Amino acid sequence: MKKFFIYWLPVILWAGMIFYASSQPYEKQDLRPTISQFLDMDFISSLFSTTVFNYAGDEVSIEKLGPAQFIEFFIRKGAHFSVYFGLGFLLFRAIKLNLNKGLTFITSLVLAILYAASDEFHQSFTIHRTPHVEDVMLDSIGALVGITIALLIYRNFRRNQTYSNRGMLQ
After folding, report:
1. Which of 84, 135, 138, 145 is deepest in the core (most CB within 10 A)?
2. How would residue 167 be classed by pLDDT, with cut points 50, 70 and 90?
3. What is the pTM of this model?
4. Closest by CA position to 6, among listed 131, 124, 90
5. 56, 86, 89, 88: which is closest to 73 by C-alpha?
6. Where in the numbering of this chain does the VanZ-like domain appear (predicted)?
7. How far apart are CA 138 and CA 120, in angstroms?
8. What is the tally of structural domains in the chain?
9. pLDDT at 161 over 90
10. Is 55 helix (H, G, I), strand (E, B) or coil?
11. Is 24 a domain residue?
């Protein structure tokens, strides 16, 4: 039971946080008023006036979105990456208890990708929210990086444990 609280409860809570956030309509998560309050919109406009690209078939630019929504776009996409970074990391540390190294990595990644896809599908039922395959890809990259970092940390920890134990035996 202790292992559940230490390893699996954080995964469940993290996934629940993601589910709750994707249940919220855009209006409840609108960051534009806060961004406009704390950042100089003229400075943002002049700094990024020539930045134009497409994401999910829509143009992302100061001209198209306005400075506050332009900045909000990057905050939201950064949130996608970082939230799934966390989920990937937590999944890896929970799954590693029961599987070998190779299976832990791939199982963690597959579960994170499936959750990202289901989260975008869930958003399709939320008013003023739009699911995007591109967001699933961004989530998947975040999870992949989180899982890789977890793998490296646990590999390094295990290596240090091995060296410490050898030193004690001598």
Report:
1. 84
2. low
3. 0.89
4. 90
5. 56
6. 8-153
7. 12
8. 1
9. no
10. strand
11. yes
Residue 16 domain flag: yes
CA–CA dist 157, 161 (Å, integer): 6
**Which residue range(s) make up the domain with 106?**
2-33+84-169
pLDDT category at 163 given cuts 50, 70, 90 is: low
> What is the token pair recorded at 21?
């956030």
Reading the block at residue 165, the tokens are 């134990």
Residues 6+ apart with CB under 8 A from 142: 80, 81, 82, 83, 84, 85, 87, 88
Q: Helix or strand or coil: residue 121?
A: helix
Report the C-alpha gap between 13 and 88 in whole angstroms.
13
135 within domain boundaries: yes
Tell me the H-state helices in the chain. Answer: 2-3, 9-23, 26-29, 32-38, 41-48, 62-65, 67-95, 101-123, 133-169
> Which two tokens mark 108?
């963690």
- What is the pairing mode between strands 52-55 and 58-61? antiparallel
- From the centroid of its chain, how far is CA 62? 25
AA identity, residue 31:
L
